[in-house]
Amino acid sequence: MIFAHRGSSGTHPENTMLAFEKAKNAGADGLEIDVQLSNDGEIVIAHDEKLDRTTNGKGYIKDCSLQKIKTYNASHKFVEQYGKTEIPTLKELFDWLGGNDLLCNIELKNSVFRYPGMEEKVIRLIKSNMLEERVILSSFNHYSLVQCLQIAPELETAPLYRDGLFRPWVYAAQIGARAIHPNINVASDYVINSAIRAGIKVRPYTINSKASMEHLFQIGCSAIITDFPEKAIRIRQQNS
Ligand code: G3P
Ligand code: MG
């Protein structure tokens, strides 16, 4: 499968509805998105804790109300191409997901700030939209993933990691996860094959080169997470 990393972020402003629309139209199987909490407890889709890199705002998302966050432009670096785009909320994305069948990997960005209550809020929204079968919860904070399963054992979780975790498929099973999301630098063929044999899915990130995409499709990796879903789909078609 092909998951569009922050939407089609290689071609469109990351984590915006523009990037999600592009991923859907390109034929991606799913999205990978990042979530943070505003100071009034709204779940907003943004990679960084701060507004500075991707918008014309400044400061921490956790210190802003949703109303304030909505005044900023999330496509300010692409303004000539795309004009103004708001930072979307998870609720807005879920409304849109109701009209298609994309999968959605929600990365809880709760390593820098713990965002108490984030797990409950995200899961409540998943359940009220009946998206349990279409979401995967991931995080670099594995305590948070265990907490998610305590709240909703039916959900799929996937630990993210960047370093050389020893036998990550054993570890995943131990924390109740059904998948692992390794950085490509630590996703060796051995890790991928062993995990898949053990019934644990593997979705490495961020796979942008043709050679890497071809290799992962050839060895039967479960999915890739890429900034360029359109390119990945073309390569998957050529290799099938
Ligand atoms: O979920 C895969 C990937 O997004 C993890 O790293 O920093 O791009 O959110 P990052
Ligand atoms: Mg992410």
UniProtKB/TrEMBL annotation:
GO terms for molecular function: phosphoric diester hydrolase activity. GO terms for biological process: lipid metabolic process. Gene3D superfamilies: Phosphatidylinositol (PI) phosphodiesterase (3.20.20.190). Residues 1-236 form the GP-PDE domain. Signal peptide: none annotated. InterPro entries: GP_PDE_dom, PLC-like_Pdiesterase_TIM-brl. PANTHER family: GLYCEROPHOSPHODIESTER PHOSPHODIESTERASE, CYTOPLASMIC, GLYCEROPHOSPHORYL DIESTER PHOSPHODIESTERASE. This is Glycerophosphodiester phosphodiesterase. It comes from Peribacillus cavernae. The lineage of its organism: Bacteria, Bacillati, Bacillota, Bacilli, Bacillales.
